[in-house]
From TrEMBL:
Keyword DNA repair recorded: no
Any Gene Ontology biological process: chromatin remodeling
Cellular component GO terms, alphabetical: nucleus
Keyword field: Metal-binding, Zinc, Zinc-finger
Residues of the HIT-type domain: 190-216
Protein name: HIT-type domain-containing protein
GO MF annotation terms: zinc ion binding
Pfam families per the UniProt record, alphabetical: zf-HIT
CDD domains noted in UniProt: zf-HIT_ZNHIT1_like (cd21437)
InterPro entries found in the cross-reference section: Vps71/ZNHIT1 (IPR039723), Znf_HIT (IPR007529)
């Protein structure tokens, strides 16, 4: 009896050892409804942990590739935006003389650009004035002189016209814009409400504006 029990015990150990040698046999044992041993639980947990770590490594690799791709795109964009046609300050500077020469070249280029713009604007104004004048009187187009063209292209304001007129002596003989003045009014000046425009008989203590009634005064 004891030998049979021992034999059965040895056989069961051999069967257990043979059943747990690989994961395939573990799966077969689970499918057949056999009880899961501690070793099988540990093996399944190890497989799950390995699968989870593989997924994590894959996610990290995908994230790294995506970040690297974005960095490469930014590098290309920055290089294209930062590449000037005439790199003036990007050249190596040696000493104060090279720096002053570099700055002088930059200022000269800017002055030249401003002068070109001014010439372009003046030319456009001359063309516009010529087109407008030709639309009004096309017969006088051939009789233009440089002085007439300058007068047509120059825009004069009211202040400049008054200042130029004050230089002529004939302007001081008669009342002009500077000397003309109205006599004092015989009646007192009428005060109007600053809110509605009616007779402003009252004055605000805070701001001094005139108002006609309490409603306008509280506005």
């Amino acid at each position: 009896m004891n030998t049979q029990k021992a034999g059965r015990g040895r056989g069961s150990k051999r069967v257990l050892f043979d059943a747990t040698r690989s994961s395939k046999r573990v799966v077969q044992a689970v499918k057949l409804g056999r009880p899961e041993t501690v070793y099988q639980k540990v093996l399944s947990e190890a497989e799950q942990a390995e699968e989870l770590s593989a997924r994590q490594r894959g996610a990290v690799e995908v994230k790294r590739r995506r970040t690297q791709r974005k960095l490469d795109e930014l590098e290309k964009t920055n290089y294209r935006d930062a590449a000037p046609d005439k790199p003036l300050l990007m050249t190596p500077v040696e000493g104060t003389q090279a720096l002053s020469a570099n700055l002088a070249s930059i200022l000269a280029a800017r002055r030249e650009g401003i002068a070109d713009r001014e010439r372009t604007v003046t030319h456009d104004l001359e063309l516009q004035a010529a087109i407008e004048a030709s639309g009004r009187t096309s017969s006088k187009k051939e009789h233009w002189t440089p002085a007439v063209r300058k007068i047509l292209t120059t825009r004069r304001t009211f202040g400049s016209l008054i200042s130029d007129a004050a230089e002529f002596p004939s302007m001081h003989a008669a009342p002009n814009y500077f000397t003309a003045q109205a006599p004092r009014a015989s009646r007192s000046s009428t005060t109007m409400c600053s809110i509605c425009g009616y007779w402003g008989t009252y004055g605000c203590v805070q701001c001094g504006e005139r108002y006609c009634s309490r409603k306008c005064g509280t506005t």
